[in-house]
Structures are given as C-alpha cells and as structure tokens.
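Pasting as-is:
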Amino acid sequence: MMEGSKFIGYVGTYTNTESKGIYSFELDAKEGQIVNLKVAAELENPTYLAISSNRQYLYSVIKEGDMGGVAAFSMDGQGELTFINAEMSAGSPPCHVSVDQDQRYVFSANYHKGTVESHPISSNNGIIYPPSSIIHHEGTGPDPRQEKPHTHFAAMTPDNNYLAVVELGSDYLITYQIDDNGQLEEVSRLKIRPGSGPRHLVFHPEDPNFAYVMTEFSSEVIVLSYNDKNGSFADIQTISTLPSDFTENNQGSAIHISSDGRYVYAGNRGHNSIVIFEVDEQTKKLTFIDRTSTEGDWPRDFVLDPTEKYVIASNQNSSNLVLFARDVETGKLSLLQNDIQVPNPVCVKF
C-alpha cells in the first residue's frame, strides 16, 4: 500500500497485555522513519497476518474465547481495516496464515492442533469459507517440546502447484497437492534432522528450485533444492545462525530473502539478532556476512519494506518495532529507530 514514498504496514500482536489487536503505521521511505501508528482493528491475538496479492484483503489469525481460526478484512489504503468475516472452530487458533497468488485459498497452520487447513475464499469480496480440507499430522521428535505434532508454516510453492508445510513437532517438510475441490493430498516429505524443529520456509525468488528453512531449536538455516516436477525437497547445506561461543537459550524465528535473491536474513530470539547470509549465485549456498542486534527482546519476526532499503524487526517481549536502513549492495543493516512502542508485536506485513 503506497502513497508517494509512504507505505502502510500492519502489525500482528498478542493481546494478553495492553494490545488492542492489529496496528497500522506509515513508513516514510524518503525520511526513513515510522509514523502514524494506530489501532487498525480490535481483535484477540491476531498474531500472524497475510495480505492478498491484489492488496485488497488482509487475513489474520483470530481467537475468541475457546475458539480460534482465520479472519478476513478489507483494506482502504490508509491503514484502516474493515472486518468481513471469520471462520473459527473449537480449540487454539493457528500460528500461521498465507494466501495463494490466485486468491483462491487461505491456508492455516496450527501449532497446538498439529493441523493444516485450506479455506476457500471469494475472489469478489474476500469472504472466507469453511475449510475444504483439514489434515491432522502425526509423529513426535526427540526434543521435549516435540511431544506431538506442531505445524508451524503452510504456503504455496512459487509454481503454485504444491502446498509446502513445515512440521516443527516431528521434523518434517511435507508437500501437498491441492485438487479443484480444495482437498489436500500428500505427495512428498523430507525428514529434517531430528530435534532441529523446522519453523519457517522461504523460496529463492530468482531460482525457485531452491528454498531455505529456519529451524527453531537448533537455530540453523537449511538450504534445500526443490523439484517442481514432484514437489520433493533435498537438503544441501546447514549453517548456524549463532556465534560459536553463544551458549544461552536461543530459538530461531523468522527467515526472509531479498527479492534479488542475494541475501538471506534469519532471526534469533534469545541472542536477539538478525543474521545476514550472502547467497552464492551458482550453488545458492549461504556464507555468513553479519549479525545485527534487534535492539530489544525476542524478535519474533521482521520484514523487508517494499523498497527493500529498510528492515523492520518486531521484538515481542520488549514491545518495540525497530527500523533499520538496509544497504542493498552489501545486505548489511544499520539502526535508524528503536523506540516505536507496540505491545507484544509478532509480525509485520506491507
């Protein structure tokens, strides 16, 4: 969403303290500052957000009492959100939502239930319909936190042929095909190193035959090759996001890649940093470049702005957004603003 050099961003939050729900702000890309922070929609625990490719609709995690699900909003381009509808069921809400490029489905991954769901949506007005498919995962892992399935991510592959699902509880990357009726059918699965806890996935934008997975427990990025003929993955490199001498608690969080495919960014909660990797042009393997403090506690996510000259980190426990300038040539980050107060922010989307 843009007006001149100003971009509208949205922040998903936990509402168990002062937060009212989803917040919006303006990024002034000319001045390099965040302004006009306000409540865009009041709802409970809108922790993760997704925006449709036509920039008309925002989809959010939602919780109401002992129900959880996905909510739809229309966007006015000024930071205001108008509630459309929500689809909810008994139990915990999902932790991740995404929309396919054709705006036919919203997909949700539920950490607590160990499920992935496909929700048809209306191309006319953004309405979410009841799930056409619900897959219940099985399995455990060696880490005590892997006592059952914990589905953490679900999004379509760049070719729009498969749904890639990251299963943190049992260390799997699972690929599904989706039929014309919105039914999900498994076509492939890759076993990730036991106990690593894979969390999020991002594809290389220039060469979609490669992807990168962030692990939560082992704090690593796994470089993957992707076969678009059958939806299968294979791992080709694993690289740590932490300094070798760091021994305290850390949990890997988000992973993003610049649109030119030259730099991968990964978040550390505990070490409280964003690590920068350079991508090899030929092999797509990673080389460590730099590590930058997120100027706060527990960076749950971060985002590159539409110009990619800025990065915004969201520190969940210290309740602040942090704005960095990004050098598009070196990939490195430099601090601009660290005092933007938002209660318990989880993710930021433009």
